[in-house]
Write a structure and sequence with these properties.
Strand content: 5-15%
Number of helices: 16
Distance between the termini: 148 Å
Low-confidence stretches: none
Radius of gyration: 30 Å
Order of helices and strands: HEHHEHHEHEHHEHHEHEHEHHHH
Largest sheet: 8 strands, mixed
InterPro entries: Alkaline_phosphatase_core_sf (IPR017850), GPI_EtnP_transferase_1 (IPR007070), GPI_EtnP_transferase_1_C (IPR017852), Phosphodiest/P_Trfase (IPR002591), PIGN_N (IPR037671)
Function: Ethanolamine phosphate transferase involved in glycosylphosphatidylinositol-anchor biosynthesis. Transfers ethanolamine phosphate to the first alpha-1,4-linked mannose of the glycosylphosphatidylinositol precursor of GPI-anchor.
CATH architecture of one domain: 3-Layer(aba) Sandwich
CATH class of one domain: Alpha Beta
CATH topology of one domain: Alkaline Phosphatase, subunit A
EC number: 2.-.-.-
Structural class: alpha/beta
Helix content: 40-55%
GO biological process, one term: GPI anchor biosynthetic process
Oligomer: single chain
Mean pLDDT: 90
GO cellular component, one term: endoplasmic reticulum membrane
Length: 456
């Protein structure tokens, strides 16, 4: 009986552990080669601002009197940049949200082994691929990206963890701390030649993590005055920081800006699930290489009524999946797309040549294909050959062949028009020359008899 009990216990333990082996294994693969667009990027540096816990409607909705609680961002949306809604995924939490934004992949379910506090495996990110990244914000978020970076080029500046008091009467001081630190940083850089030299290099990233809105939302709810006032504080602080950054770099027009959120929040101050108030977050992008506001007169393909509620139906809205922001940031400053990214570059945000867009999209495709090839090879090596079934991508191959053949014809006939025009112009020139020679000769023959008579 004891033996039977032990065998039964072992069987149940094996079945229980198998759940983790089946459903909670990391989807990440390693061994891919990073790829970047070979053309010169439009921006030398990127500023990423993440307002933690900011709902899309809280930012875009106007006040009853028709004004905006975020006048600076509203001005950017209407004149300077491209805007949309970034769609997050469950779980709508800070760590997976930031990983999706900066690394380009969604929740690694194997993180359950770490209590959902950090990713159990190393991963690539835009910060890792940058030349230098300076971060200011929460000690819960920033160290995660410095830890996985190769080399010593991700610099984090955090306030004490004790400052994150969800029972605080006003947590906007967390965001004020970030803005103050950033302003002091650029001020000190003017007299620090080493730091200034690093800042003037290309492929740099500045990351501002603003936790105050999320903290006030938990403590007072998103409809509270504390939450709404914090949004206004972020808008004013952002305007001031942008002015300081532009002044530091001499208004060279080489800075790109991304403002977004990691997740939203329900009316009762929680997040983590999939309600629209949690998954719909704002996205505003402007600066170097970014398409300016596009006015539209026709209805846009969004039927949820938000455009009318936000009074933005006259401006083109470009929605993205949250992971799409990573390849966008990488393309703007010319760094390799994170090798684990599953994001798709949102082309409407780019203001550049068709060649740059094509090269960027090609880089994105190659980077995703690299993951597929590594994953297939790994699975093939760990599976008995007669049990292995490859992914059926016959139709995709047929489509690739079709497009490749069209490309062959395109390049085969690439010079045909130019050469044809050259031949036609050459023939016309030759014909014109022959006609002129004939006319000249004929006129000369007609003059000779008259000249002879006069001489006689």
């Amino acid at each position: 009986m004891i033996t039977f009990f032990l065998v039964g216990l072992t069987v149940h333990v094996v079945f229980f552990v198998s759940i983790f082996d089946i459903y909670f294994t990391s989807p990440l693969v390693h061994g891919m080669t990073p790829h970047s667009t070979p053309l010169a990027p439009p921006a030398s540096r990127l500023v990423l601002v993440v307002a933690d816990g900011l709902r899309a409607d809280s930012l875009f909705t106007l006040l009853p009197n028709g004004s905006s609680r975020t006048p600076y961002l509203r001005h950017l949306i209407e004149n300077e940049g491209t805007w949309g809604v970034s769609h997050t995924r469950v779980p709508t939490e800070s760590r997976p949200g930031h990983v999706a934004l900066i690394a380009g992949f969604y929740e690694d379910v194997s993180a359950v082994a770490k209590g959902w506090k950090e990713n159990p495996v190393e991963f690539d990110s835009v910060f890792n691929e940058s030349r230098h990244t300076w971060c200011w914000g929460s000690p819960d978020i920033l160290p995660m990206f410095a830890k996985g970076a190769t080399g010593d080029h991700v610099y984090t500046h955090t306030y004490p963890a004790a400052e994150e008091d969800f029972a605080s009467t006003d947590a906007s001081k967390l965001d004020t701390w970030v803005f103050t630190q950033v302003k002091s940083f650029f001020k000190s850089a003017k007299s620090n030649s080493t730091l200034k030299a690093s800042l003037l290099e290309d492929k740099n990233v500045f990351f501002l993590h603003l936790l105050g809105i999320d903290t006030n939302g938990h403590a007072h709810r998103p409809m509270s005055q504390e939450y709404l006032d914090n949004i206004g504080l972020v808008d004013a602080g952002l305007a001031e920081v942008v002015s300081i950054i532009e002044d530091f770099f001499g208004n060279d027009g080489r800075t790109a800006y991304v403002f977004t959120s990691d997740h939203g929040m329900t009316n009762w101050g929680s997040h983590g699930a999939g309600h629209p108030s949690e998954t719909l977050t704002p996205l505003v992008v402007w600066g170097a290489g970014v398409q300016k506001a596009q006015r539209v007169s026709e209805p846009q393909p969004y039927n949820n009524g938000y455009l009318q509620d936000w009074k933005l139906e006259h401006l083109r809205r470009v929605d993205v999946s949250q992971a799409d922001i990573a390849p966008l940031m990488a393309s703007l400053i010319g760094v390799p797309i994170p090798v684990n990214s599953v994001g798709v570059l949102p082309l409407p945000y780019l203001n550049n040549s068709d060649q740059f867009k094509a090269e960027s999209m090609y880089t994105n495709a190659i980077q995703v294909l690299e993951q597929f090839k590594v994953k297939m090879t790994q699975k093939k090596e760990t599976t008995l050959s007669f049990l292995f079934t490859s992914y059926q991508y016959i139709s995709l191959c047929q489509s690739l062949i079709s497009h490749s053949l069209e490309g062959l014809v395109y390049y085969h006939t690439y010079d045909r028009f130019f050469l044809g025009c050259s031949v036609v112009l050459g023939f016309v020139g030759w014909t014109s020359y022959v006609v002129l020679v004939i006319l000249k000769t004929h006129a000369s023959l007609n003059r000779h008899p008259n000249l002879s008579k006069q001489m006689m």
